[in-house]
Amino acid sequence: MSAKVKRFILTNIPYLFVFLLFSKLGEGWRLAAGADAGAKLLHLLDGLAAAFHSLAPTLHPQDLLIGLIGTAILRLAVYVKGRNARKFRKNVEYGSARWGTAADIKPFVDPVFSKNVILTQTERLTMDNRPKNPKNARNKNVLIVGGSGSG
Length: 151
Description:
The structure is a single chain. This protein is mainly alpha-helical. The protein has two domains: 3-83, no CATH class; 102-136, no CATH class. The chain is built from five helices and two strands, in the order αααααββ. Strand 1 (116-118) and strand 2 (124-126) form a beta hairpin. Helix 1 crosses helix 3 (44-51). The chain starts with a helix and ends in a 25-residue tail after the last strand. The relative contact order is 0.09.
């Protein structure tokens, strides 16, 4: 058995139990006494007691459909939650920033010296609104604290 198949089976085993639970809930609803939804709701606990009396899965088509629908909804919710998860850097503590190098600032510097805003003696930032690579476009708001030669 390949690792991919093994991982697929292991990650989907819990959904087998969820399917069994939802099918038992469907069986409990079906076995509850009453003709309409209100009467069935009043006797739902009796139906659930009868359904969970045996842990064997039910083979009634309605119960299987309810189990399948409930499991599919839960699987979809888990999938959507996983796709929208934020990307964190695992095992990296906060405060792991480092000082930038000349290679880090190079994409943000214009080759023409007069088209840059001077940040430090060695770092500059282009004032071009539309650089060649759009990923290198940066906010041009700069706060200068101190006069020339103060830092």
